[in-house]
Each structure stands twice: as structure tokens, then as C-alpha cells.
Design goal:
There is one protein chain. The chain is α/β, with parallel strands linked by helices. It has one domain: TIM Barrel, CATH 3.20.20. About 40% of the residues lie in helices and about 15% in strands. The strands form two sheets. Strands 1-9-8-7-6-5-4-2-3 form a nine-stranded mixed β-sheet. Strands 10-11 form a two-stranded antiparallel sheet. The C terminus is likely disordered.
């Protein structure tokens, strides 16, 4: 009798193990997309307004219009505060100052880091020819030429609400760097994306994210380009998450991820949608 019990227990265990292995195989293996087009604007985000004439991280009016003319319908903007608390488009002030103050002294670190007033910001030119953008400029252009605004760095709901009217928040994707920010943004009508990079797998981070995903707390996440492909598939297939991947400029990388149905959106600097080629062969990351 005991042998029979052990026999059937063993069979049951094997069946469960087989089911688990089969499920994991399905979840972590590609679910191929049929002929993903590298000219399809629904897959691509112009990173920091996209590159122009070999420059990246411009966050400028000219690069924004260039990306729109190239067919992009998702445009990302890095956001920062001027010294008088106006939200403008800037990756960081050190980079902005170096690009907008001619002949800046290489050793003048204080000048590099100085945050300009909004009035000073408006007088600057990026590389002596490109026009800096305020967040209000972006909103004005978006009303004339509709596209989805994607933002980075600032995820304070109250601050963003002072710029975005309720009727356009459904067309604004905001990268969120905490659980609280994600839910606050969602409640206010934005499309928040939880940054996986802000959650440490140590100190309970892994159990936090698993618990949150299982309870369907999230819809979108952002992940960096070197994230495990199997992990991305697991998140998509098991938890139904949508994934925005940053920052990629390689056609082979696009084909791999889009063809294997790993991601939904890809941030890119240099991809020319119309010509389906990399304009400048710059594979910088976000």
C-alpha cells in the first residue's frame, strides 16, 4: 500500500514538474511577430526629441519637429527645473551649459553646474543654433501637431498637473520612479511607466515587484536595453505588462526584440523611420 502511495505521489510530482517546465518554456521563449516593420511609428520613441545633425540629447524645437516630420508619434523629453522653478526640457544642467555657453572654461565646474533662470534659459542656443524648449512649448506644439508626449526625470504629479490639462493627460506617458508616483500619476489620468531600474533586487525589491505584478498594479514598465530577454518575455506573458525599452539604435536589435515580441516600444536616438536606417551610427544609452 505504501509503495502504491509513493508511486502515485512520484507520478503526481513528475506531472507538476513537467507542467511547470512546460509553462516556463512557453513563457520565456519567443512568440514571434509576423514581419515587424522598422518603419512603423507605433514601435518607436524619439529619445530626448531624437538626434539631429549628429547631436543627441538635444531636447530642442528643431529636433522635435525633425522627429515629427520623420514620422515619430512618440517623443520623449527630459524635464528639469530652472532656478525659478519653471519646468523646461533639459537632460541635465551640466550638459546644457556646456552646449549653450560658447568658450566655456574647461575648469569652471561652478559654471557647468549653475542652474539658469527661465529668462536666461530662453536666451540660450544649443550648439549656437538649436532652440531650447520649455514644457509649455511642447504642449503648444502638441496641440498643433498631435503626438504622444513621453517624459523623464520629473514624475511629481502636482507639478505636472500645473502644465497638463486633464483632457491631454491620456496622451502623456510619464516614467515613474516609485510606487507612490506611479499610482498618483495614474489616478490623475496619465499613462505612467514604472522604471525597473529604480527597484533593487536586494532588500526585498524582488518580492515587492513580484507581489505588485501578481496583483496587477502596473500596466507599463521601462527597462534598459541589456535587460534579460527571457525576463522581458516573462513579464509580458505571465503578467501582461507592456514594456518600453531604452535606448537602442541598432537595426538588428530592433529586429530581434520586435520580431520576438519582447517589447512594445523602443526609445531610439538615430533611427530614420522613412529610410529604415541609423542616421549616425551612435549607440549611446539613456
Amino acid at each position: 500500500m505504501l509503495k502504491r502511495i509513493l508511486y502515485f505521489t512520484s507520478l503526481s510530482s513528475c506531472a507538476v514538474l513537467f507542467a511547470i517546465i512546460s509553462s516556463l518554456y512557453y513563457i520565456t521563449n519567443p512568440n514571434l511577430r509576423s514581419n515587424p516593420s522598422l518603419s512603423d511609428e507605433k514601435y518607436f520613441i524619439a529619445h530626448a526629441t531624437g538626434s539631429l545633425e549628429g547631436y543627441t540629447y538635444l531636447n530642442s524645437k528643431e529636433s522635435l519637429l525633425n522627429s515629427l516630420n520623420n514620422g515619430y508619434r512618440y517623443i520623449e523629453f527630459d524635464l528639469g527645473y530652472t532656478s525659478d522653478s519653471i519646468i523646461v526640457c533639459v537632460h541635465n544642467w551640466e550638459q546644457f551649459n556646456k552646449a549653450t555657453i560658447p568658450n566655456i572654461c574647461g575648469n569652471d565646474s561652478a559654471l557647468y553646474m549653475k542652474i539658469p533662470t527661465y529668462s536666461e534659459f530662453r536666451t540660450r542656443k544649443i550648439y549656437e543654433k538649436y532652440t531650447p524648449l520649455s514644457l509649455q512649448d511642447v504642449i503648444s506644439i502638441q496641440k498643433q501637431r498631435p503626438f504622444t508626449i513621453v517624459t523623464d526625470i520629473i514624475c511629481d504629479t502636482e507639478a505636472l498637473n500645473s502644465y497638463f490639462e486633464k483632457n491631454i493627460r491620456k496622451n502623456v506617458m510619464v516614467e515613474a520612479f516609485s510606487e507612490e508616483a506611479y499610482h498618483s500619476l495614474k489616478e490623475s489620468g496619465y499613462i505612467p511607466m514604472l522604471s525597473l531600474g529604480c527597484i533593487s533586487l536586494l532588500n526585498g525589491g524582488f518580492s515587492f515587484i513580484c507581489s505588485s505584478l501578481i496583483n496587477n498594479k502596473y500596466e507599463w514598465i521601462t527597462a534598459e536595453q541589456h535587460s534579460s530577454k527571457r525576463t522581458l518575455r516573462l513579464l509580458r506573458k505571465m503578467f501582461g505588462l507592456k514594456i518600453a525599452l531604452y535606448t537602442v539604435n541598432s537595426a538588428s536589435f530592433f529586429n530581434w526584440h520586435l520580431g520576438n515580441n519582447d517589447v512594445d516600444l523602443i526609445y531610439t536616438d538615430n533611427w530614420n523611420l522613412k529610410k529604415q536606417l541609423n542616421n549616425y551610427q551612435d549607440n549611446s544609452t539613456k
